[in-house]
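Minutes, structural biology subgroup

Action item carried over from last meeting: produce the structure token record for UDP-N-acetylglucosamine 1-carboxyvinyltransferase (Faecalibacterium prausnitzii). EB confirmed the sequence was re-checked against the source entry. Recorded below for completeness.
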Amino acid sequence: MTQQSGRIWVMGGRPLNGTAAIPAAKNSVLPLLAAALLCRGPVRLRAVPRLSDVECSLGLLRGAGCAAYWQGADIVVAGMPSNSTLPGETAAQMRASILFCAPLLARLGRAETSLPGGCNIGARPIDLHLEGLARMGAKELDAGAGKLVLAAPGGLHGADITLRFPSVGATETLLLAAVCARGTTVLRGAAREPEISDLAEFLNRCGGRIEGAGTSTLRIEGRRGLSGCDFSPLPDRIFASTLACAAAAAGGRVELTGCPPALYAPVLEILEQMGCTVERGADRAEVARFGRLYGAGRVFTGVYPGLATDAAPLLAAAMLCAEGESSIEDVIFERRFGCAEGFERLGGRVKRSGRVLSVGPLPESGLHGAALTAPDLRGGAALVVAALSAQGKSFVEETRHIDRGYAGLWEVLASLGGRIGREMPPPDAAVKKIPSKKQIYLAFEAKR
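Output recorded by EB:
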């Protein structure tokens, strides 16, 4: 699928006020779509946001031979995979394409794909995925540069696996492999993120036997077949974090509904330390800022339940508006702060050193509008958040990055009172066509 880019314009300086409902989480929907390959019955995912990464996942499912389509706001997946080769161009567009390999191995004994892509935020090797799959009987075949071919002609079997780092992606891959493998798998050192628990709940609803989701040790008893089910993915804690940071940066009062505050508690706690008022309910939070913002001091990301790496650039955008100093270190990815250059263009006092972004006090003149380029998904959203607090007009180019994880971000912010819109390039129909030989001849005759 070709991603069409465009630009978002922001006229900053206006506070945000109102209520926003948090959609389903992209980071849950993608592994759930991969899990649908294991199901003999139809799968329906409820109220899925229309993201470019979701469209890529549907392309992978269709390439594998399944029916995968939208039905209103829901996605329906039906049929078993018949093709072990995933579409190369589609697979290369997003990191989550690696998740589709384990189900294909389990069902067809083989998986072939391009090496997965995604945001350029640092090294994201798949060695943990491959090491775990090898313990379960998969072999990596020589496929040439940029390709990945895995085979398990004898099928996958259970194993006792210890991850040396609690990788979310590797935990999801091995969970998907183990749920239909022969025997029992024990996965130690597993990630504990809410999206892991969501995937385990879905697989159990389909007939799987998974214990320990939400802890560092998972026990999976393999099952020959899984049925389908109707399932509502959990809400997007990163989307909620984005809007919470936007309220802190621009000022005003924003109520976020449909997402338990516990899912993004570190973000809310840091915003409180910076001077925001946060009210919490069972599945709602209200973030308000009417006075000054203060520096957050030194902040670190970490594995769940620590501060999510995806939230780091968003918090940094709010830190730009603080009167004191802050620093934020991402211990997961070494190039997480590609948005730093854009922060500088807005007039922010930032310094990047390795994994650490230092943020100085807000200049007396404040931030000002600028021409910006989204470097990646979360960095692009962070530039939009920062532009909301800047005086004057800003433009954020390369919005295709933002579209990977946010459905209509600018529309949500506009509904909260932000002066923001989107401009798209002219349609392909406007591209000048190559004239035919007859047209060239007629034009030549007319000139004579």
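Discussion: DSSP finds 15 helices and 23 strands in the chain.
Next step: EB to file the record with the rest of the batch.
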